């Protein structure tokens, strides 16, 4: 028999590493046992999964403490400098330093031209015990900036002009963020005790939703992922991982020492800033570069999978440190 104390310790260890395990399993399952393309095209799984993540956050948001308008403005400005201006410029530099081939360089820079990820960043932020309101304010701010910055960055760093529909971005913000959060806030007002009663559920549901999103993303591109050669995979992974970690660490330093953010706000800041979207990048690639640059999708997939694993590992270490500090 395993002693009760030892069993409890094992459960604590599993809980701290649950996100890392779930994401790793989702990647492996998506590549090895992908959902059929017919099923993926027949049903829109992404929207409800993302909506559930934000609904859970809306239920647990307490806007009575949201009186830091000046702080939020500073966060958005700093976030835009890092995610919108610095990220693609650094990607262009990294592509040259690591001597990426033309197609690989294009895909690598392309994903970095997007300001943030709507699908994964919020779930990562919440699993890191980040501040919900800070995360949402930053997500919305960067997404709106992206209407102008995405085509501009593509023009500057890739050399071609691709128009990003403002209506599509606004529709995603309303559908993915505002409506679910509003529903969550309404539930909070009608049922004041609901946040406390669903605290455990609100913790685990975003993990499940994020794992499901990763599985769906890998399922869609399973055939392409299987075609990756080990040499190209390793050669592409290093600039992707290096850039992601560099921006994440820079965001940590900026949030802590320049913006002087509390720990929860800073955790939201670093993950919202450093996460890049796979779905939007692949969608844009498929209608613009797929014919002339077919292998440009490889670095997009490598970057996305790499950031999922890296951030999941970092969050597991954060949870371990939080646990040790509470003892």
Question: What does it look like?
Answer:
This protein is mainly α. It has one domain: Na+/H+ antiporter like fold (Up-down Bundle). The chain is built from 16 helices and no strands. The two termini are 26 Å apart. It holds the Pfam family SBF_like.
Describe the structure concisely:
By secondary structure, the chain is mainly α. It has 16 helices and no strands.
Secondary structure: elements and pairs:
Layout: H1 4-16, H2 18-32, H3 37-42, H4 46-59, H5 69-97, H6 102-112, H7 121-127, H8 132-157, H9 166-190, H10 194-197, H11 199-220, H12 222-226, H13 230-258, H14 263-274, H15 279-288, H16 297-326
Helix pairs in contact: 2-11, 2-16, 4-9, 4-11, 5-6, 5-8, 5-13, 5-14, 6-16, 7-8, 7-11, 7-14, 8-9, 8-14, 13-14, 13-16
CATH architecture label name: Up-down Bundle
Oligomer: single chain
| Fraction in beta strands | under 5%
Helix-strand string = HHHHHHHHHHHHHHHH
Protein name: Solute carrier family 10 (Sodium/bile acid cotransporter), member 7
Transmembrane segments: 18-35, 41-59, 71-92, 104-124, 136-158, 164-187, 199-216, 236-255, 267-291, 297-315
Organism: Halodesulfovibrio marinisediminis DSM 17456
Keywords: Membrane, Transmembrane, Transmembrane helix
Q: Descriptors for this entry?
A:
Na+/H+ antiporter like fold; 79% helix; mainly alpha; single chain; 327 residues
């Amino acid at each position: 028999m395993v002693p009760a104390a030892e069993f409890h310790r094992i459960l604590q260890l599993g809980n701290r590493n649950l996100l890392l395990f779930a994401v790793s399993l989702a990647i492996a399952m998506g590549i090895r046992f992908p959902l059929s393309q017919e099923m993926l095209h027949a049903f829109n799984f992404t929207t409800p999964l993302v909506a559930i993540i934000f609904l859970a956050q809306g239920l647990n948001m307490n806007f009575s403490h949201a009186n830091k308008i000046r702080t939020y403005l500073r966060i958005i400005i700093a976030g835009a400098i890092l995610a919108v201006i610095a990220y693609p410029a650094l990607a262009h530099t990294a592509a040259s330093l690591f001597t990426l081939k033309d197609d690989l360089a294009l895909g690598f820079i392309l994903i970095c031209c997007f300001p943030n990820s709507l699908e994964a960043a919020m779930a990562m932020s919440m699993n890191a015990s980040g501040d919900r309101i800070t995360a949402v304010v930053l997500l919305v701010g960067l997404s709106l900036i992206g209407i102008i910055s995405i085509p501009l960055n593509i023009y500057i760093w890739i050399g071609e002009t691709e128009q990003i529909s403002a209506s599509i971005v606004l529709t995603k913000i309303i559908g993915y963020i505002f409506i679910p959060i509003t529903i969550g806030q309404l539930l909070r007002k009608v049922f004041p005790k609901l946040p406390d009663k669903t605290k455990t559920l609100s913790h685990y549901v975003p993990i499940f939703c994020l794992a499901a999103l990763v599985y769906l993303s890998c399922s869609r591109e399973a055939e392409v992922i299987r075609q990756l050669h080990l040499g190209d995979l390793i050669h592409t992974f290093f600039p992707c991982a290096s850039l992601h970690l560099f921006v994440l660490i820079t965001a940590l330093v900026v949030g802590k020492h320049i913006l002087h953010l509390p720990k929860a706000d800073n955790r939201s800041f670093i993950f919202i800033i450093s996460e890049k979207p796979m779905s939007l990048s692949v969608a844009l690639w498929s209608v613009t570069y797929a014919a002339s640059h077919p292998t440009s999708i490889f670095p997009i997939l490598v970057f996305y999978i790499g950031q999922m694993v890296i951030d999941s590992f970092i969050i597991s270490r954060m949870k371990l440190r939080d646990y040790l500090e509470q003892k």
